[in-house]
Write a structure and sequence with these properties.
alpha/beta, globular, 6 helices, six-stranded mixed sheet, Molybdenum Cofactor Biosythetic Enzyme, Chain A
């Protein structure tokens, strides 16, 4: 089966949960979360849940688990991926992955390098599969969300979901 044929079997729409991890974002100033919602809805995807949680492992894991339980097929996370002591999104979510999608972080950093130079190596963007649900974790800046979503996540979201839920 060709790559095109393989991707053509993906669903038209995906049910997504959107999570912003931040100690400072609110519904009024969560530009990254707002961008995630707008980009998903523009592509016809259905947002089944959206939440902002603080930079602490327990609420991060609880939100991802809630989204999975609410039948989200993908979880898109923004924030908490830096090197600051409070940035623990990766430490909280990575242990949930049964499978990692290493190419997402690698490609994100390569694309970021073109825009911001060597600072791109400090990004800890990551992705994986948790209980058949695809999870993408990206930095919180609006520019990073736009880059990740437009160049990587949205072009492959439905395809990744269709592969992850086989079994």
């Amino acid at each position: 089966m060709s790559h095109h044929d393989h991707k053509s079997k993906a669903p038209e729409t995906v049910r997504v949960g959107l999570l912003t991890v931040s100690d400072t974002r609110t519904t009024d100033n969560d530009e990254g979360g707002r961008s995630l919602r707008e980009m998903c809805e523009r592509r016809g995807h259905v947002v089944v849940a959206q939440r902002i949680v603080c930079d602490e492992a327990t609420p991060i894991v609880a939100a991802v688990s809630e989204f999975v339980a609410s039948r989200a097929e993908a979880v898109l996370v923004t924030g908490g991926t830096g090197l600051a002591p409070r940035d623990i999104t990766i430490e909280a979510i990575a242990p949930l992955f049964e499978k990692r999608i290493d190419g997402f972080g690698e490609l994100f950093r390569a694309l970021s390098f073109r825009a911001i130079g060597s600072s791109a190596m400090l990004s800890r963007a990551a992705a994986g599969v948790h209980r058949g649900v695809v999870v993408f974790v990206m930095p919180g800046s609006p520019a990073a969300v736009k880059l990740a979503m437009e160049d990587l996540v949205l072009p492959e979201l439905a395809h990744a979901v269709s592969i992850a839920r086989r079994g």
